[in-house]
Design goal:
This protein has about 200 residues and is an alpha/beta fold. It is built from 6 helices and 7 strands. It has one domain: Rossmann fold (3-Layer(aba) Sandwich), CATH 3.40.50.
């Protein structure tokens, strides 16, 4: 299964629109898909209490992350998208990433770690949308996504920065970008193999 995750606070915006196209492409290649809009879930930010290191789950908060964890665990592939806010991922995407800390297993000296979330064959496609026309204005949005999910055990299959779009769903007016989204989603599903 390919799970799409939107970190956009704006419903029906460019991130949501591209995510839908990416997942349609994955579905064409035979993947089952599911989409999660982080704005629809309520969860607290990680407070660094470290209880999860022993419990292997969050022992401080009982919130909507408990609904998200099982979906992520079932996923063979992830498609993660965020608009660029101040050269970075959105606050809700950052909060979500931080709450994945329970999946890490650390060595006694904390210098080595592994993840129980990713693993062999699991792949992620990350993308970012920026209103400014030049790639440098994406800032660290793509690395923030890619580095985080690589550390969680996913192969980063694709990193895609989309620039020059701000008005709600403006990407729909660019057939080339929409076709590229569908093609990237299809390639991710094909790389995961069938059925997924």
């Amino acid at each position: 299964m390919v799970v799409g995750i939107s970190g956009s606070p704006r419903k029906g915006g460019n991130t949501d629109t591209l995510l839908a196209a990416l997942l349609r492409g994955a579905a064409v290649a035979g993947a089952r898909t599911e989409v999660l809009f982080l704005r629809d879930y309520r969860f607290s930010p990680c407070i660094g209490c470290e209880k999860c290191r022993e419990l292997k789950t969050c022992g401080t908060f009982r919130d909507d992350m408990q609904r998200l964890y099982p979906v992520l665990e079932r996923a063979d592939g992830l498609v993660l998208g965020s608009p660029t806010h101040n050269y970075n991922v959105t606050a809700i995407m950052k909060g979500f990433i931080d709450r994945l800390y329970p999946y890490y297993d650390f060595s006694a000296d904390r210098r080595k770690w592994g993840s129980r979330l990713g693993g062999p064959g699991k792949k992620a496609l990350v993308f970012a949308v920026c209103e400014q026309p030049t790639p440098e204005n994406l800032g660290v949005t793509l690395p923030a996504l890619a580095l985080s999910f690589r550390a969680l055990g996913f192969e980063i299959f694709d990193e895609w920065g989309v620039t020059g779009f701000f008005e709600r769903a403006a990407v729909l007016q660019d057939p080339g970008v929409m076709a590229a989204a569908a093609a990237r989603g299809r390639k991710l599903a094909e790389a995961l193999g069938k059925p997924v």
